[in-house]
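Lab channel / #folding
Pinned by the channel admin:
"Please post every new chain as: sequence first, then the structure tokens as a reply. Keep commentary short and put observations after the output so the thread stays searchable."

First post following the new format, from NK:
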Amino acid sequence: MTIGQAKEIIVSEAEMVFNSDEYDELQIDFMGGEPLVNFDLIREIVEWLESDAINVPWICFATTNATLLDDERKAWFTEHRTSISLGASYDGTGNMQATNRGTGKYDIDLAFFHNLWPEQSFQMTISKETLPNLAEGVLYVQRKGYDINASLAQGIEWTLDDAKKYREQLTVLKDAYLKDHSIRPLNRITRFVEVHDAPKNEFKQIHGCGSGHNMVTYDINGQKFGCHMFSTIVLGDEAVGTDEINWDDPDLMVETYCEECVLRQFCPTCPGFNLKYRGALNCRDKHWCPMVLAEALTACEFQIERLAMLPSLTKEDAEHAQVAIEAYHILKQINPQTATSPYIISDYV
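Reply from TO:
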């Protein structure tokens, strides 16, 4: 993207924020590929913004694999750390990093990121190859004093055997966190577990991201998309602009297959990946089903056990515990190793 075009886009979005009753600030994300390949653009845009180029609060962000962070660039990011934050992709131990990323070059400087942006978590992708070492990799990073979030790789044919391994690894993490409260628990077992054994017309399926609502992506030609997954770089000639989708449609993400599944709201879905791999925004990846069940069960157990250890509960803690207990009461009736989705309680009682 040219610098002039980037500035035009930012000015336009800033004007929208300024005139909006819904938004108060603007976050500008630089995306790739690897964003630091175009470091010159990032540097000029950030320094231009620092000169009061727009009249709304703003922050810049980029996710990087960190392989292009030489001393000169580290010095620049250090100087401008309050204007731009970097998030690093990091997949656990050195062996896990090499397995996922395909090169030993990914032994990155974790301390640099943590020292500049201590609230920023590292982002781990869980692949089939690294799944058996998930707990080891997470604790390796956390015991260095760093936070890490994890997500399952998309487009993978996850199996019941994978779900068994996932449950085992999450249980190892659960037990470690219950023993050592100084470690921040992994996001996969702290998610609010809300499970519904209710008619299909209640508790609509939704997508949990900001695609098409509080987030848009511009490609290098200035075309506007709900997120990068709908853009030309991902879909080629099949790219779908923001005006081609009614993002306010309450049935946009509803899939008949999932209408009565008890996990239909807990289960994450990405409309962009759904469109890319299965041809429709609402067509969820059924390979995720056993993995989501394993995660929900372990999250319930962790939250119930952790809250039970507290000498007293706040009203919020008590409400959280009650929801987790109710969810677990439903989920424990499902055998993760034999159940097939959708998970409808009447099928397993």
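NK: Residues 54 and 274 are 36 Å apart (CA to CA).
TO: also worth noting, The chain has a mean pLDDT of 90.
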